[in-house]
Design a protein that fits this description.
- This protein has a single domain, classed as Rossmann fold, CATH 3.40.50.150.
- The protein contains 9 helices and 11 strands.
- The strands form 2 sheets. It has a 7-stranded mixed beta sheet, sandwiched between helices.
- A hairpin with a 5-residue loop joins strand 2 and strand 3.
- The termini are far apart.
Length: 293
């Protein structure tokens, strides 16, 4: 479900920025919703909301965000099933150690990691969510922006689930992740919208993952790998979840996208409400940091 942007005042829009990947300054408009535009870099292909809200605008937008998520009912229940899917996928590569979940919300995803095998920590911008994680699951959560938090420990695994696309400056976040991961450790990014997905190409502003001002950046595995290579990481594996999730209904979803392609082709795109869940829309990937030896 899209979050209305009509109550976000234009005065909180910041300046147009260079591409977050390559610093390019030439763009094409990819999608538009209200007064937000997704622009595609002509040099590297990165798609971002540009310009997007200032820090103050984003603060206003996310005020009470955790409480809104708790009221999502069925969607919140479905998310629990996907937490299990994500945990099972990443524990194929590492099954114990010190783990940090960046943007951990109320600790729900972290709670699926066995405390006998994992030393669990979180970072969360919203104080109410951090307090819930501590109270409900006994998980210590640091409140604030990751890049501003000093750490006296390093981690075997750092995770960002549905998070990296929300950061105004995602590159500084990836750099900080690299700094706090041990040599030989892992960075796990999942549930982030894929900028090169067939659904985004087809639906543009009606793609269900196009939700400005929340989702600001639409990465690809290749573009993330390009950034992470600077910090000593190499891609280990990646996957695009669909059929295993509770959101998927292949027969229904494929029929809808076929119908919507026809509507778009004949100039009746206004009849399309929103894209269905579809293969290739969401990135799940893990990178490994070089060992010093």
């Amino acid at each position: 479900m899209k979050i209305s942007t009509k109550n976000i005042m234009k005065k909180f829009l910041g300046p147009l920025k260079p591409c977050v990947i390559c610093s390019g300054k030439k763009f094409e408009t990819w999608a538009r919703l209200d007064y937000f535009e997704a622009k595609k870099c002509k040099r590297c292909g990165m798609i971002s909301i540009n310009p997007h809200l200032t820090a103050k605008g984003l603060e206003l937008y996310y005020d009470g965000y955790y409480e809104k998520r708790l009221r999502e009912g069925l969607l919140f229940e479905q998310r629990w099933k996907v937490y299990e899917i994500d945990r099972k996928w990443i524990t194929k590569f590492i099954d114990h150690g010190k783990v940090l979940d960046v943007g951990c919300s109320g600790g729900q995803f972290l709670s699926t990691f066995d405390p006998k095998k994992w030393d669990r920590y979180g970072v969360e911008i919203e104080k109410a969510a951090a307090e819930y994680a501590k109270r409900r699951y006994g998980i210590p959560v640091m409140v604030g922006n990751l890049v501003d938090i000093p750490f006296d420990k390093k981690f075997d695994l750092v995770m960002m689930r549905g998070v990296i696309e929300h950061f105004s400056n995602p590159i500084s976040t990836l750099k900080k992740c690299a700094e706090i991961i041990k040599p030989g450790g892992y960075l796990f990014i999942t549930a982030t919208p894929a900028g090169n997905s067939f659904a985004f190409y087809t639906y543009r502003e009606k793609w269900r993952m196009f939700t400005p001002p929340g989702h600001l950046h639409f990465f690809t595995v290749d573009l993330l790998s390009r950034i992470l290579k600077r910090y000593g990481f190499s891609l280990l594996d990646h996957h695009y979840q669909y059929e295993e999730t509770p959101y998927a209904n292949p027969k229904k979803d494929f029929a809808k996208i076929k119908k919507d392609i026809v509507l778009s082709h004949i100039g009746s795109k206004d009849q399309i409400k929103e894209s269905p869940p579809f293969p290739g829309s969401m990135i799940t990937a893990v990178w490994k940091k070089k060992n010093l030896t």
